[in-house]
Recover the amino acids of this structure.
């Protein structure tokens, strides 16, 4: 039973996803709740898998009884279990927010939206746990199409354009990944990560071949994860999507691609191999540019959602930087940031979505003036997440910085602390003025009929607790990092 | 001891939040005043209670980074000065703000939260805790600087924020360097850097600390935010200049120089001459600039920059004699400068005068205020028997012991300049005829007694050196290990 649990999670999400449009007409509320409960159950199952993986080692499943390298192998290491847990937790909390957003949507649209979100979740879960390159590619495509769908769900011109731009670039990204997979298969004869890696190590190939494989993977996943300078689609897509879609895309989706890339890289080449190929330093440079450029672009935005989207580009940079530095601390920093950035960004998108709603759809930053008095609890959550983004101590963001410092200095790369510190100053420069507007700006008295933002309070609470005591999570992640590196 | 520390850190947070209670809408100063009194009592009790020097760890924030507090000699000196002055400062702020009512709840909330940040800095037992509260201090004093919300105040606020955040970022970098070289962040007498640490690393660390904490300690050329921050309400200026912010910068330097870098490494770095020159330039140059200011608060601000030079001079020197004088001045300057700012605030409230050229004859209208001003100015120049004399006396002695005649010249020059920019104000106020028509409605007692109290303390500390000297001497011994 437990061995099949990973597969059961994915399959049940896929199946329910397709059933949603059938039932949404008559049982709209029930469908929404069932979808939310299902993702919550998936989170519970991921927690079980994480516990199991930490205590008794990874959970292997050979699909259809076909052993690797012929069949598709599913492996849940502590690393994949943790990412699954983060993914399903955030998705389920956003799911509980969705009915609030969908009040005036037609039934049919609600149904298909749920389908797409569940499909996306299933695809990302599959992507995380698969140990087979071609299987990964399939899930990569499924997730790209599902993301395209939820971006386009908002029927306005901007969303349509952004979705199309996203689709084109995501397809190019998948093309790069497919090409890399193709070369890997051609030279090694395997699609299974473990076997392919062994064949690569033993095969004495010309370094240019391994280098081409690595760079194609890097470009492909880089586009999908919004790594600078391949991020151009991200701000448009993430800002024009509906609030829940922005929270999901910025909060979890792009990060899963980063983690999958790290799994492929460490799985195929190993940390030392990456360093020798020069890929690690390439990742570090691209990540640093992402961090600095993303923050710099965010600084000049006047549209709150675009600002948050650019901030995602910068924050994904932190994750890539952690992977690029390698070592237990670097990888643990990256994984920890996947988690807390998911919490922070979803909190920021959900709470600013409420402000946009309050201001009749205007996304200008001036709309934040004085909203602290109108929406005290959502704005307290916003403030917490914003200050945490800056990385102030005893808030969640600080531990990432600290681990990156440690990883940078122990790897002898002394500019890492400088980049991280400059980035937190830039974060302060664009988040603090908004926080000031929220609490001390002037606004006309405004009647707020509904102050609730479902799902926001749990997100903010988890964020606050993690900030105060990140120790236990970091220790789990250090263990997960060991699994990735070795 | 742990209980007292919890009181000192937590009570101001509760007091700050309590101003929003519906029943206190008309009297938002009550919780801040009560918390200031409780904190002052708690800090005073720390001296009596046992457990001086014991570390109380609250919790581990991340592996290797814990929130920990400890009362030792230097910590108690700063905590007592700040908490003690906070009580009259809060009372004064209440009377002052009654004449300038604007967002009082917000004002008093941040006013009181600043007390937590200051106590946290004073009582921190490791670099992380110090950094945490140093960062917090910026965030809770910034709303006070831009309190009036005029364009000028907002500019000053942005400048303050940029300087302070950049400074804190450098402090963070220094913390990373410390962690990477020493492997621990817990303050220890004698420093954390081993004998094998290379001179380059020590120099880098010292440079970062001077820049990081020097921003708040207003070491030239990082001082520009301080005169600009005069746009804040006067009680805030008093707080920034005399009690909390600038002293936090000096204390940060003191702590990190002697408990992180350590006197030995300090000597090995061979920076002392350069750093002394920096402090000396700050002292003389700021005094010269102060001479040219006609705006009273700005003149006081430059005087602060100059006087902080005395304090940083002693810290930079690494010499016990100069350090003794500088710590005496740490306390004495606080007392004198808070008096001067209280006076400036009372003058502004009663007559609306902000410029020195309009202050002729004002002494006869408000004898208490200008009397206190005269006492504090004499202290600044170093006239017996005001407390400022003692700081200078010990600094002179220290300079002689350290065989640094150039420091003596700087001190003499500064005393002369101080006389030039303070005495004309006092002389004009008392002996010149009134040149300007002003409306003086008479001051409420709340704008008089705090400044009379602090001026009286200046005299008491001047007459009774035994109140301060033995304790400061012990502090220096414990710091120099």
């Amino acid at each position: 039973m437990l061995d099949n649990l990973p597969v059961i999670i994915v399959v049940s999400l896929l199946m329910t996803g397709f059933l949603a449009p059938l039932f949404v007409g008559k049982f709209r509320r029930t469908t929404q709740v069932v979808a939310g409960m299902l993702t919550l159950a998936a989170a519970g199952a991921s927690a079980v898998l994480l516990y199991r993986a930490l205590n008794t080692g990874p959970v292997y499943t050979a699909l259809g009884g076909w052993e690797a390298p012929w069949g598709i192998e599913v492996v849940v290491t502590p690393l994949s279990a943790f990412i699954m847990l983060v993914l399903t937790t955030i998705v389920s909390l956003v799911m509980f927010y969705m009915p609030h957003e969908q009040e005036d949507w037609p039934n049919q649209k609600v149904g298909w939206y749920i389908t797409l979100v569940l499909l996306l979740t299933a695809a990302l879960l599959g992507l995380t746990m698969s140990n087979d390159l071609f299987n990964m590619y399939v899930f990569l495509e499924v997730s790209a199409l599902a993301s395209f769908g939820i971006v386009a769900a908002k029927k306005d011109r901007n969303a349509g354009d952004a979705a199309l731009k996203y689709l084109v670039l995501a397809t190019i990204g998948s093309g790069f990944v497919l090409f890399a997979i193709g070369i890997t298969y051609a030279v090694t004869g395997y699609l299974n990560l473990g076997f392919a890696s062994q064949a690569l190590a033993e095969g004495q190939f010309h370094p240019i071949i391994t280098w081409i494989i690595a760079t194609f993977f890097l470009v492909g996943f880089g586009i999908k994860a919004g790594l600078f300078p391949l991020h151009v689609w991200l701000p448009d897509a993430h800002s024009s999507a509906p609030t829940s879609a922005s929270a999901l895309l910025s909060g979890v989706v792009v990060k899963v691609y980063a983690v999958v890339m790290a799994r492929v890289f460490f799985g195929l080449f190993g940390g030392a191999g990456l360093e020798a190929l020069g890929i690690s330093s390439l990742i570090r440079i691209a990540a640093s540019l992402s961090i600095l450029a993303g923050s710099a672009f965010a600084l000049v935005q006047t549209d709150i959602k675009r600002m948050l989207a650019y901030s995602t580009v910068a924050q994904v940079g932190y994750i890539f930087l952690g992977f690029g530095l390698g070592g237990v601390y670097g990888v643990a920093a990256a994984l920890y940031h996947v988690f807390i950035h998911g919490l922070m960004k979803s909190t920021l998108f959900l709470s600013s979505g409420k402000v946009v709603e309050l201001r009749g759809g205007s996304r200008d930053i001036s709309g934040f003036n004085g909203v602290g008095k109108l929406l005290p609890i959502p704005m307290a959550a916003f403030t917490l997440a914003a200050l945490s983004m800056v990385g102030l101590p005893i808030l969640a963001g600080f531990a990432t910085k600290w681990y990156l410092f440690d990883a940078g200095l122990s790897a002898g790369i002394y500019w890492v602390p400088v980049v991280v510190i400059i980035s937190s100053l830039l974060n302060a420069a664009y988040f603090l003025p908004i926080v000031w507007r929220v609490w001390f700006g002037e606004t006309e008295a405004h009647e707020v009929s509904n102050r609730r933002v479902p799902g926001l309070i749990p997100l903010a609470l988890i964020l606050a607790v993690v900030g105060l005591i990140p120790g236990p999570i970091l220790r789990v992640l250090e263990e997960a990092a060991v699994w990735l590196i070795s | 001891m742990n209980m007292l520390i919890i009181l000192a850190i937590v009570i101001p947070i509760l007091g700050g939040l309590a101003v929003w209670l519906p029943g206190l809408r008309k009297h938002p100063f009550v919780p801040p005043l009560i918390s200031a009194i409780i904190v002052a009592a708690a800090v005073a009790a720390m001296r009596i209670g046992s457990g001086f020097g014991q570390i109380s760890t609250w919790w581990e924030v991340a592996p290797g980074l814990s929130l920990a507090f400890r009362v030792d000699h230097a910590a108690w000196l700063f905590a007592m000065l700040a908490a003690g002055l906070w009580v009259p400062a809060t009372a004064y702020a209440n009377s002052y703000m009654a004449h300038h009512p604007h967002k009082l709840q917000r004002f008093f909330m941040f006013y009181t939260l600043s007390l937590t940040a200051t106590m946290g800095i004073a009582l921190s037992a490791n670099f992380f805790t110090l950094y945490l509260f140093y960062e917090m201090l910026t965030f809770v004093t910034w709303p006070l600087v831009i309190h009036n919300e005029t364009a000028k105040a907002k500019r000053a606020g942005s400048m303050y924020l940029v300087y302070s955040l950049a400074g804190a970022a450098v402090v963070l970098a220094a913390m990373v360097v410390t962690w990477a070289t020493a492997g621990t962040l817990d303050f220890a007498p004698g420093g954390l850097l081993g004998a094998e640490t290379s001179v380059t690393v020590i120099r880098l660390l010292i440079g970062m600390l001077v820049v990081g904490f020097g921003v708040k300690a207003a070491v030239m050329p990082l001082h520009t935010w301080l005169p600009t921050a005069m746009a804040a309400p006067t009680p805030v200026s008093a707080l920034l200049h005399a009690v909390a912010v600038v002293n936090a910068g000096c204390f940060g330097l003191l702590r990190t120089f002697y408990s992180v870098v350590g006197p030995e490494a300090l000597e090995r770095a061979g920076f002392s001459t350069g750093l002394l020159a920096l402090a000396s330039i700050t002292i003389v140059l700021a005094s010269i600039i102060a001479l040219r200011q006609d705006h009273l608060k700005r003149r006081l601000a430059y005087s602060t920059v100059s006087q902080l030079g005395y304090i940083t001079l002693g810290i930079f020197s690494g010499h016990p004699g100069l350090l003794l004088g500088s710590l005496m001045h740490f306390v004495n300057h606080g007392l004198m400068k808070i008096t001067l700012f209280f006076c400036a605030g009372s003058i502004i409230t009663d007559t609306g005068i902000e410029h020195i050229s309009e202050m002729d004859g004002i002494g006869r209208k408000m004898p208490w205020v200008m009397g206190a001003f005269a006492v504090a100015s004499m202290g600044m120049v170093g006239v017996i028997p005001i407390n400022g004399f003692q700081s200078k006396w010990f600094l002179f002695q220290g300079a002689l012991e350290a065989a640094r005649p150039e420091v003596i010249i700087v001190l003499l020059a500064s005393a002369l300049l101080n006389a030039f920019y303070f005495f004309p104000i006092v002389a004009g106020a008392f002996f010149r005829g009134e040149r300007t028509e002003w409306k003086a409605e008479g001051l409420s007692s709340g704008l008089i007694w705090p400044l009379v109290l602090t001026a009286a303390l200046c005299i008491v500390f001047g007459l009774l050196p035994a109140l301060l000297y033995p304790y400061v001497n012990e502090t220096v011994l414990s710091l120099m290990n």
Observations:
- The CA atoms of residues 255 and 316 of chain A lie 7 Å apart.
- Chain A has one domain: 2-485.
- The mean pLDDT of chain A is 86.
- The beta strands of chain A are 59-62, 73-76.
